[in-house]
Amino acid sequence: MTRYFFLCILFALFFSFSASGATRKIIFDTDPGSDDAMALMLALNSPELDVRAITVVPGNVTAKQGLENALRMVSLANRCDIPVAAGAQHPLFQKLITAEFWHGKNGLADVELPPSKCKVDSRYGPDLIIELVHAAPHDITLVPVGPLTNIALALEKDPSIVPLVKEVIIMGGSITGGNVNAAAEANIYNDPEAAQIVFQAGWQVTMVGLDVGDKTLLSKKHLQQLGQTHGPINDFISKVASYLVDLSAKFGSPGTPMYDPLAVGVAIDSTLVTASAMHVDVETKGEFTRGETVANRRGAVERNVLHGDRYVIEGVDKVEPNAKVCVAVDAERFLQLFVSRIGGK
Ligand code: RIB
Ligand code: CA
After folding, report:
1. Nearest residue to 265 via CA among 220, 221, 331
2. pTM
3. Domain boundaries, the chain
4. Which CATH code for domain 23-342?
């Protein structure tokens, strides 16, 4: 009897481990983009993740250039099995603002990859998101690292996906000032209406914003580590990272912020960051603040009641959080994870 009981325990332990070690299915929505490229290669070289699709959104570059870049990257990684789909061609209500200034003319640090061996998937990005979420209810994590246009379009077309999505890990936003201007972070700034739709949807949002991205700087030290190994992906990322480190140095920074790669890092290992639950709204009107993610740290708002010619505060109402906002990061542990995953690939 004892031997049988022992075997049962062993069997149960094995299954509990394999279940907890299960890979996380993700849909990577991207505006590639040099840091997007580093994020995608991290995702494709991390056993914890199963990239089910790549959807392309305009942002750093046009939709057309982004699609070409995504196809060339999955080809470089020999992953033509992953569907790559075009999505929105412009933000919901404003003109596109492209960032070749930061990402190079082709959006990939002017690194010319070979033409892709892979073919574009004919499905429309938002439709592909809807299809895959319904095919794997409660099992898909959305990892958008560009403007949130595709995510908002998917949600508007089929709101029933909201309770079926496991988590939405967003590279975007900031509660400590912007990178585009005083208030706004680039991904939010490029489609504030889409971002407000996504933040108010009611699903599990994790915001990986500038508050942690700006503390996660890949520096010359990490470039030297990457330079000690070689492989097609390793060498591509070394070139992209080197371009970004040089550009950052021109603006007085000791390293390049790993914005998009850190969002993937959080999908791999959420213990890399500390997050606080807050209610986040996206400003869509402010002359100086359009695109700002406005976080309510106190979780409360005063109730003002009109009495004659003035309002009187008559109470304080609770504001329910709608996002986990990342406020601290174990930056070096992430950077070493990144180098270890890319090195030699
Ligand atoms: O603000 C940083 C974000 O804007 C990153 O996703 C970068 O790729 C750009 O899209
Ligand atoms: Ca991006």
Report:
1. 331
2. 0.94
3. 23-342
4. 3.90.245.10
